[in-house]
Design a protein that fits this description.
The protein is an alpha+beta fold and 79 residues long. The chain has one domain: BolA-like (GMP Synthetase, Chain A, domain 3, 2-Layer Sandwich). It has helices spanning 3-13, 42-58, 72-78; strands spanning 18-24, 27-33, 64-70. Helix 1 (3-13) crosses helix 2. The longest helix is centred in the middle third of the chain and has 17 residues, at 42-58. The chain is globular and about 35 Å long. The mean pLDDT is 96.
Length: 79
């Protein structure tokens, strides 16, 4: 699975988010920025991302996920 595949899956589930993905074998690094994360705790944000990728994690296509999730305001503060 390549970065574009993962990005497409996430964009379909996390509508309106800006998604950045890097893939190295079965390891995936994700940065997701969107209003969907505003007011949510870290675990709730992770659950949204994991839910979108669950089928591919369960099948072993994706083995490890490293993610950073931000609301647009949080992302601006990172810059």
């Amino acid at each position: 699975m390549n970065a574009n595949d993962v990005k497409s899956i996430l964009e379909a589930q996390l509508v309106g988010c800006d998604i950045k993905v890097e893939v190295g074998g079965s390891h995936v690094n994700i940065i997701a920025i969107g209003d969907i994360f505003d007011g949510k705790r870290t675990v709730q944000r992770q659950q949204l991302v994991y839910a979108a990728l669950q089928e591919h994690i369960a099948s072993g296509v994706i083995h490890a996920v490293n993610m950073k999730t931000y609301s647009p305001q949080e992302w601006q503060q990172q810059a």
